[in-house]
Amino acid sequence: MTLDAPQPTMSNAAGVDGRDAASTPWVNVAPLMSTRRRRNVGDAVFRALTTGAAWSLVGVVVAIVAVLAWECAGAMRTFGWSFLTVQKWDPVANEYGALPFIYGTLVSSLLALLQAVPLGIGTALFLSEMAPSWLRAPVAFLVELLAAIPSVVYGLWGIFVLVPWVRGWVTPWLADTLGFLPFFQGPSYGVGMLTASMILAVMIVPYITSVALEVFRTVPVAQREAALALGATRWEMIRMAVLPYGRVGVVGAIMLGLGRALGETMAVTMVIGNRPEISASFFAPASTMASVIANEFSEAASDLYVQVLVEIGLVLLVVTMLVNILARLLVWRVGDAAAGH
Amino acid sequence: MTLRTRRHVDRLFTLLGVVCTIALLVPLALIFGYLVARGVTALNFEFFTQLPKPVGEVGGGMANAIVGSAILVALACVIGLPIGILTGVYLAERGRTAAGSTVRFCADVLNGVPSIVIGIFAYTLVVLPMRGFSAYAGGIALGVIMLPVVARTTEEMIRLVPTSLREASLALGVPTWRTTISVVLRTARGGILTGIMLSIARVAGETAPLIFTAFGNQYWHGGLRGPISSLPVQIYTYAISPFDDWHRQAWGRRARADDADRGHQPVGPTPHARPARG
Amino acid sequence: MRSIQRLLGFLVVAGALGAGPAHAQLQLNGAGATFPYPMYSKWFSLYTSVDPTARFNYQSIGSGGGIKQITEQTVDFGATDGPMTNEQLAAARGPIMHVPTVMGAVVLTYNVEGVKTGLKLTPEIVADVFLGRIVKWNDAAIAKANPDVQLPARDIIVVHRSDGSGTSYIFTDYLSKVSQTWSDKVGRGTAVSWPVGLGGKGNEGVTGLVKQTPFSIGYVELIYARSNQLPYASVVNKAGKDVTPSLESVTAAAASVTDMPEDFRVSITNAPGEDAYPIAGMTWLLVYQKQSDAEKGKKLVKFLDWMLTDGQKVVPDLHYAPLPPAVATKARASLAKITAPDGTALLGK
To answer: Structure pTM?
Structure first.
């Protein structure tokens, strides 16, 4: 899309089309020519830089997979695929199975998303569309503050404040109202899958909200006004103009939050109960892949033990990849559905 | 639907929006209230300028942890920011191709890797060959954690810049690369800074990867090739100990660090309020 | 905003250039057990007045971490609550010595309404509770051991460690000795497959969980229970006597071990002494017998010598139990084995 400088040709100079060399105005195109070369060089360099940066990111991921795979080769050989389906965790007998941790990671992250996405998007919409403009900056700042709190602090707050509240108020209420579902049955200790998902939700909400807020703010005024001009209420305007425009960006925000949830370690390990068991109830204690690595890695004495933990790290990487692929497919479906009609 | 119904629905969603925002801010208030209640007694001048004292002795501070964290974050930025922003540009411009999708996919995967795994990675690649813990290893680990956050938010923000701006610049004869830098990035500046803030906030609070890389240090570090202290590791060490004085310091450290993080103010379309200092 | 940026920039540059106290000191790095960390931190601080040219930097990353780091030689010394196994020792580049430092007690702390202090437990009860065989607080066995106490008819919520730890090692070592079922089914280790219970991270995590969860019971180091004002139970020892955990009963446990091995890798749980507390453990520093750096080695040996003499005097101040004098003397003698790379002994230099 760049303009081409006028090219001097032999025909011009020779006066082939009826004009001779003397009467044709000589446009000195030499400086323009050198600009064109410089432009190409600049573009080439920039392209090289961005491509290099992008592929070094890919290189980092490949390196991580390679390092992990190399370190846990022994464990992979020992257990094979059954590692992913066995429910056992015995460091003394050196028998290991990762299934409870996979379950724990997936369910806690999913539950966290279920809580964080409506909350985060709701807040972002409120701040960008409904709140008075003087409120936006301070509240957005406070939300970002949530992201600055370290995991450890979340964990400690979780144990001392959230856990008693969950045990004393939340789980009894859930058991009363939704107790017919197997998810809300069984004894509640305060620590467990539900509490972990709540802490995760609080931790990932700032990512979703901040990015979604930026996305919504850049929806062109023209789009909004068009909807309003057609007689839409504010909510309808949001639904018709803002959300569709920002859909892709919002999905990006959600992926960011999901990534954080899958890998979150410290806070989860303090409130999830750390029991490598699968249970239908959300009240029950559980364990995640990240938390078992954090808990046991520094003390892992035998080689096989260390390798098993590294293998769990690798499994987590793969699970993250699969979840990402799934999310992308979902977006395409939703995108097709919305665009096609 | 009648107009009245539509109006009711509208009001309902407004209310939901308010509820969401409040629900979000409640935990924040609770956590901060808790922090302040437990830690405010520990904040004094000594706290910011002294080295930690061993247990049983009242006083001492976290000066080395403050400086250590700043250094580690700076090292992380050296790795994470240039590569992250350039990757973001790549994704925004060529993200729809197969290659671009691969890169985006890798960024999302990297985002989901637990920080402790990245710590193990940095340990294997940096600490073992160097035969020792160092600030470099810690900086590399944090930089790798930062990368995907910066890359993805940069990409999203660049995507939001209207194409017309870009086309206008190119129509004026500005080279492509110049357009990207002076027009697109400048316009997306605010959002990109938000992404950078988020990533700095995230790495500043990371504990697990630093335990295997930067290791921690009670004293001033002796150059970047040796172990270095950092706030989250120090907090974690104190918090898991049985001593009250250390707990107080841990909470005080947390309150101080949050303010320090907020000292970076993003410039751009969304000016944020200045936090109270101290 | 700009001034903050400048200030931070200045801090970073200053820090990077190594602003701080003089570098005439030699820094030695160590890593390992969390349990003795407060004691080590106090020792290292006191020691700077004894030898101002040495600085000791210790990070408590866990006993297993200490073993791993010293094996990989990324630190100058390690620390562990659970002794290294023969396989682990074989994996190191050279012989590693265990130097005993202090001892501690693992206590059973509980949160039962109406039972403030004075719960008595027998080894069988402890094992059965953690095996999941005793499930209620008013179980016949517990009631029999505590005839004067009003026990509620509630479920026992067991709390154990979720992370690998020397504390767990000591506790499971004890359980393996007193219960054949435990030994067959679970065994001993820094991390085991717990039959029942919730996992808390670190001593702090277990303390927090027990504090917050009514009708729970867990095991922690003595110091944690004391500083959090949690009640802890007395346990019947091997000699049949009901012993309350304390510094004295822990020291008695170590003193009653008659055959202290040459390398000090000993378990003092379920010790035979009359006044011995049965769930006690020793903690060690790990050093290479042949040091790779003569200067650092010299300073290290000098510190160890001080630690085993003057250092032991301040141990009770922090509620740890000092080594019995016989053990300390024997350990001092073993320091003579530590040599520089060229083979000369470093003690007394």
So the answer is: 0.77
